[in-house]
Write a structure and sequence with these properties.
Blueprint: E1 2-11, H1 15-30, E2 36-42, H2 47-53, H3 59-67, E3 70-75, H4 91-98, E4 103-109, E5 127-133, H5 161-177, E6 181-186, H6 192-206, E7 212-217, H7 218-227, E8 234-237, H8 239-252, E9 262-264, E10 269-271, H9 290-302, H10 306-323, H11 339-349
Helix pairs in contact: 1-9, 1-11, 5-6, 7-8, 9-10, 10-11
The protein binds adenosine-5'-triphosphate (ATP).
Adenosine-5'-triphosphate (ATP) is lined by residues 14, 18, 77, 255-257, 275-278, 280-281, 287-288, 291, 332.
Length: 350
C-alpha cells in the first residue's frame, strides 16, 4: 500500500467550496483503487490568512508544501485585500516561482455542445492544452520595487533560455502523446524578448521531428481561438499571454468553472482550477466544482502510480458522464444545480 501525502489549500472565496467537492470525489475514487491511499493535510493560506496573521503563506505552510507529494489548491486572493503597492495577495504565484513550477498546464475540453458560445461544436470537438510559462515573462516584474512617486512605471518581460527550453520540451512531449502539433504564441514581430523566445522554440522543435510546430502572433491567436479552436492541439506561450488566452479558451467550453489546471515542475506540482476566488458568487453554493475536480484528476495522473493514473481516468469518465447529460448543470452553464449537488453527482458516477 502506498500513501500519498496531499497538502490541501482551500484558500479564499469559492476556493473552499469547490475544493470540498474535489476532496469528496477523491475519497470516492480512493474506494475504487487498490494499493494507494491519500493522506490529506488541510492548511490555511491566502488573503484570509494574510488578514489573520499578516503573512499569506506562513513559512511552516510553505515547508509542508515543499515536503508533500502534491498540492491541491482552491483559489487565493480577494479584491479588497491588497499589499501596500496595490497588488492582490497571491501566494500561489510565490509557490510557482519558489517550487519552479514552470509549466502552467491548462486543458480545454468541451463536454457538452450547449456549454459553448460557439454553436457549431459538439462535445469533444474542442480539445487542446495550453502550456503557459509560469515563472518569468511579464509576471517576473511583479515584485520589482517601485517608489510611489515613480513616473513612468515600467514592467519588464524576462525570457531566459533555461526557462524557455524546459517549457518547450514539456509542451513537445505532451504533443507527442496527443495529436502531434505544438503552436507557439508570441509577439516576436515587435518585442526582442519574444524574438529570443521564438528562436529557442525553433531549436527545441528540431529535437522533436515527429511533432509539427507552428508559430502565430498573440493577436492572431485570440482570433483563431474563436474562429477555429478545433485546429489546436498544444499551445505554448509566455506567462501574461497565457494568463489572458487561457481565460478566453475557458470561455469556449463553458467558462472558468470548466477549466482545470496544473502548475508543474520537475519535482513539485500544484493543481488548482484556472479560476480565481470569484468573490461575486462566493458563499452562495453556486460555484461550478468541475474545474477543481478535473484539477484533482490531473494530480492523480501526475502522481504516476498505475492506480492513481487509473483513478484519473475514472474521474474524467465520471465528469464526462455527468456533463454530457444536459440535466446536470450548474448556474454558469445555464442550469440550477448547486456546488454540492454537482459534486454528489460526479462522486455517485464514480
Ligand atoms: P484571478 O485574477 O484571481 O484569476 P479573475 O479576476 O480572473 O480571478 P475569477 O475569480 O476567475 O476572476 O472569476 C471570473 C468570472 O468567472 C466571475 O464572474 C466568476 O463568478 C466566474 N467564475 C469563476 N469561477 C467560477 C466557478 N467555479 N463557477 C462559476 N463561475 C465561476
Amino acid at each position: 500500500m502506498q500513501t500519498f501525502h496531499i497538502v490541501v489549500l482551500p484558500g479564499d472565496g469559492i476556493g473552499p467550496e469547490v475544493i470540498a467537492e474535489a476532496v469528496k470525489v477523491l475519497r470516492a475514487v480512493e474506494c475504487r483503487l487498490r494499493e494507494v491511499r491519500f493522506r490529506l493535510e488541510e492548511l490555511s493560506a491566502g488573503a484570509g490568512e494574510y488578514l489573520r496573521c499578516g503573512d499569506p503563506m506562513p513559512p511552516e505552510v510553505f515547508a509542508r508544501c515543499r515536503a508533500c507529494d502534491a498540492i491541491l489548491l482552491g483559489a487565493m486572493g480577494l479584491p479588497d485585500v491588497r499589499r501596500p503597492g496595490g497588488t492582490e495577495i497571491a501566494p500561489q504565484l510565490d509557490l510557482r516561482e519558489q517550487l519552479e513550477l514552470y509549466a502552467g498546464v491548462r486543458p480545454i475540453r468541451l463536454y457538452h455542445a450547449e456549454h459553448s458560445p460557439l454553436k457549431r461544436y459538439a462535445a469533444g470537438e474542442i480539445d487542446f492544452v495550453m502550456f503557459r510559462e509560469n515563472t518569468e515573462g511579464m509576471f517576473a516584474s511583479r515584485s520589482a520595487p517601485h517608489t510611489p512617486s515613480e513616473d513612468p512605471v515600467c514592467d519588464t518581460i524576462r525570457i531566459s533560455r533555461r526557462g524557455s527550453e524546459r517549457l518547450f520540451r514539456a509542451a513537445f512531449r505532451e504533443a507527442a502523446r496527443r495529436r502531434g502539433l505544438v503552436t507557439l504564441v508570441d509577439k516576436s514581430n515587435v518585442l526582442p524578448s519574444m524574438a529570443f523566445f521564438r528562436r529557442i522554440f525553433d531549436e527545441i522543435a528540431a529535437e522533436f521531428p515527429q511533432v509539427r510546430a507552428e508559430r502565430i502572433y498573440v493577436d492572431a491567436a485570440a482570433l483563431y481561438l474563436v474562429q477555429r479552436p478545433h485546429t489546436f492541439d498544444v499551445i505554448v506561450t509566455e506567462n501574461l499571454f497565457g494568463d489572458i488566452l487561457s481565460d478566453l479558451a475557458a470561455g469556449l467550453v463553458g467558462g472558468m468553472g470548466m477549466a482545470p489546471s496544473g502548475d508543474i515542475g520537475d519535482r513539485h506540482a500544484v493543481f488548482q482550477p484556472s479560476h480565481g476566488s470569484a468573490p461575486d458568487i462566493a458563499g452562495q453554493g453556486i460555484a461550478n466544482p468541475v474545474a477543481a475536480i478535473l484539477s484533482m484528476a490531473m494530480m492523480l495522473e501526475w502522481l504516476r502510480h498505475p492506480e492513481t493514473v487509473r483513478g484519473a481516468v475514472l474521474v474524467r469518465h465520471a465528469v464526462e458522464a455527468v456533463c454530457s447529460d444536459g440535466r446536470w448543470r450548474t448556474r454558469d452553464l445555464g442550469g440550477a444545480l448547486g456546488t454540492r449537488e454537482m459534486g454528489d453527482r460526479i462522486a455517485a458516477a464514480i
